[in-house]
Batch of 2 targets.
Target 1
Amino acid sequence: MQKPSFLTAQEIVIWDKVEAGEPLTDEEALFLYHSRNLGLLGILATIVRERLHGKIAYYNRNFHIEPTNICIYECAFCSFARKPGEPGGWEYTPDEIESIAASYVGKGVTEVHIVGGVHPKRGIEYYADIIRRIKRILPGIHVKAFTAVELKVMCARSRMSYREGLSALKEAGLDSLPGGGAEIFHPEIRQQICATKASTEEWLEIHRTAHELGIPSNATMLYGHIEKYEHRIHHMRLLRELQAQTGGFNCFIPLKYRKENNALSYVGEVSIIEDLKNYAVSRLYLHNIPHLKAYWPMIGRHTAQISLSFGVDDLDGTIDDTTKIYSMAGAEEQHPVMTTQELEELIRSAGYVPQERDSLYRPIHTATVS
Ligand code: SF4
């Protein structure tokens, strides 16, 4: 692409690095976060996005199981968790989870995403049993399950090391880890929003161990609350460094803080401009993580569509109204469900080519470009 003539000296340096595929420094990422030139951020992120994925935009056919929202922690941003006995709490039995899985037989789903509250009593054996039951009913399904925050406690409850706990879950059929629980790694912020749960070091260690065991994972970042740009860059730097060592992250998923029904409501929410800027800087800074996802139940389908022009290459999946985490926090999508036709139309009308993928980004079906 021709370099525009109106760029400043600093923008020219960054443009040249992006075109050469060189990693940006923290200072350059900070410069981009403070930039008011949203159009330029979109162009730069698109250079990287199209170098990696061309015009392809990925989606999958998935559903979620949230086994419980009973949780031992009280994260300030959380609208989902309940204490035992509190109204609005749920705890599915293994039989109920089997029934949920059974309702997807023959529906073409390729992935189940399982995350929930950190239950006070359930250990590795309980969750391994759930995975086995699901795989008996849906033998070909990819099980992407349990945040590092959940894994830390279930390993402790079963008196297992991370390696032993993850190995037992893998043996039961665990295929990959989702990226949740990362929030913001910087201690100044983590201390204020989720002081008691898995620390930054523990989150990174669990993902490192998973990668060493051949279990790939994703990574998230909860943005748009009390953190500053510097904290986001620190967060992404730790991910970039771990990725350089293990290569185990498939995808980065920025998660927008939503303000309803939680203890941080007073800080409000950031604008869509800020969301798009964050996608673009993420794509530019995390040069070694292949995929960037806009999780549409959190951001809304229309912002997700625009994000395809700000570095995003994946919109997640059909969901089928199976997650409550973001609807309880006030997201636009109160009953998130999209058919594959709707997802493909959303992608096509943004000028991209829809591609159904499996959980490891292997193509399942190539849609005809209209
Ligand atoms: S964010 Fe997760 S760990 Fe924190 S309170 Fe909510 S469910 Fe529990």
Target 2
Amino acid sequence: MNYKFSYFLNEMKPSEIRELLKMASTPGLISLGGGMPNPGTFPSAVLKQIMDNLIETRSAQVFQYANTLGVQETLDIIPGYLEKTQGFKCTPQNVILNSGSQQGLYELGKVLADPGDTIITEEPTYVGAISAFNANALKMVGIEMDDEGMKTDVLESRIKSLIKAGTKPSFIYTIPTFQNPTGFTMSLERRKHILELSNSYDIPLIEDNPYGELRYYGNKVPPIKSLKGGDGVLYLGTFSKVMTPGLRLGYTIAPTEVISKFNLIKQALDLATNTFSQYVAYEYIKQGSIYKQVALNIEMYRKKRDIMVNALEEEFRDGSTWSKPDGGMFVWLTVAGNVDTKQMVGEAIKNGVAYISGQAFSTTGGQKRSMRLNFTYGDDEQLKEGIRRLSKTFIKKN
Ligand SMILES: Cc1ncc(COP(=O)(O)O)c(C=O)c1O
């Protein structure tokens, strides 16, 4: 058979991350590559009790198809949870439950843009967002960042030049808090500025916030959606880092006229999200277990973050730089000298450590001297040893 593959596949490349996940099982290899939560944070006992109870008492509902937008109890409980944790108000009519926020990202490209349209992201940005946008044949313009997040003055001039060239961006996508991959958090000033730009140029703003609750240091910076004028912001959330990623549950908060369009697309994608997961999440919030578990996750991850940052200070005294995140799951390491971290992956694996090269997160094929390091998955000793092996790979000791 001579298969004629679709045009949407043109920009889609096999993800370095998927390749790395395969190697994660190599004996002795320390993987700082994946973006996985630590299995020690999975609330197994609580989930077992919730699941047993649901099966015993509500099997007729929990194993049935759900409405496309979501199970009503779950839709109803999310606004209160978000008001408590994120400080913004919404109603159940503003919510759609998805199979992970990853599905929400894909839906965005279908709902707010046409193939070939230009959108704006951070540079670097989340590799899964790059895949979702590529799968919709969108053109990404990445805006550079520093440790206060996306540079919004650069954003402003890019918006102006894009509009002048007749390619007004269809939306702006940002991960303002503990960004994946850099760990950077956008300052309040820039949050206000990006919101002002979105409103004044009439370009929808998408705030993706999977890590917001995992803060280890410093004061909370309010989500953009909670700021004055933030009602039109589309907000993506997930249970992956506060419950488990395997239950595949995320949500998008949007104005009702946008939710109705997501509804149409989701009917075509999968009819509805996993009903059982939605009931589990509902009970997990209702019982208050989510708040207790997040507090435990923070304790564990703060220690791991410190171990990684301290190990980098010990091992990389050669002018390399790295982010010192106040939360989330990642450190962004930029190696001194003229190195290409993608080309060095094989050498690193020979030395028993894996990472994801900066290029995987770039909209332009840049970020060659950088890499993303995950500090949540490995055990404490592996994190230290992993950084030692990295320094052996990158620093030529005499
Ligand atoms: C920034 C960002 N958005 C979305 C996702 C997707 O998460 P999920 O589909 O598990 O909700 C991730 C996962 O790592 C992420 O880092």
